[in-house]
C-alpha cells in the first residue's frame, strides 16, 4: 500500500484507471481511502439517512472499481467518482420505494472527524435532516456541489424553476426550524 | 434580510464537517467488486451453467406463483404487454398497496421485496438520467417491477391477515 501511495502522488488519473482496470488491489484500496469520506459525506448530506448513505457509498465504489476498465473516463478521477455518487443518491431520491426509508435521524453516524465542530454543526444537521428529501438534495447540489438550477432541474427530470423553488422552500424551512 | 440569512446558512452548510464511512465498508466494497469483475474466458461455461440454473429456478418459481396468483400469467404478460400496460399494472398494484392498512410498515420479507423494487427503480432511473433509449430493457425492468409488486401485495396481505388473527385471538 505504501509503495502505491508513493507512486500515486505522481500518478495521473489515467494511470490509476489503468491499475483499476487490471484489478490492482492496492489501487482499489487507495481509491477507496482517498474518496470514501467525500462520497459518504455527500450521500449522507443528500439522503439524510446513514443507512441509505452507506448503501449509496457501497454502490458508488462497486461501480468505480468494476467499471473503471469498461468506460471511457475523461478528466479527473475525483470528479468521476463524485458524479457516480451523486447519480446513486439521485436514484434513491427518485425511487418511491426508498423514500419511505428516509427518516430524520442524526444520531447514528460514525465518529466525526473533527470533534470541535460537532456542537455547532449538530443543530444545523438536524435541521437539514428534517427537510423534505428533495429540498435537502437541491440545497446540497446547489450550495456545496456548485450545480446550476438548470442542471439540478435536469437531474430531477424537471425545470430550473423547480430547483429554485425547492431551494427557496428549503431555506425557509431551515430558517423556521432554527428559530423554533 | 433573507438573502443575508441564506448566505449565512450557506456558509454554515459548506463548513459542515466531513463524515467517515462505517468501518468495514471498504472491505465489503472490494469483496463485492471482486465478485463482479468481468468474467474471463475460462469462467464462461461456469457462468452459463449458473445462468441456466437461475433460469430454471426462476421458471419453477414463476410456475408456483402463477398457481397462487390465479388471474395473472406473468410469462404471458412479459411477452405481450406493452410498456404502457406494464406501467398501468404497476400503478394499480401500488394503489392496492397504498390502500392496505399499515402501508409502508413492512415485515422482513416485505422489506426485502421493497429493496428489490428500489433497485429496479434505480435501474429505470439510471436509464432515464443517462438518456438510454432501450425499450426492451425498459419493458424487462417494468415487468420485473410488476412481479415484485404483486409478490409484495401477496406477502403483505398474508402478513396483515396473520397479524389481525393474532390480535383477535
What does this structure look like?
The complex is a heterodimer of chains A (180) and B (169). Chain A is built from ten helices and no strands. Chain A starts with a helix and ends with a helix. By secondary structure, chain A is mostly helical. The radius of gyration of chain A is 18 Å and the shape is elongated. Chain B is an all-alpha fold. Chain B contains seven helices and no strands. The longest helix of chain B is centred in the last third of the chain and has 34 residues, at 135-168. Chain B is extended and about 50 Å long. The relative contact order of chain B is 0.09. Classes of the chains: A mainly alpha (180), B mainly alpha (169). At the A-B interface, helix 3, helix 4, helix 5, helix 6 and helix 7 of A face helix 1, helix 2 and helix 6 of B.
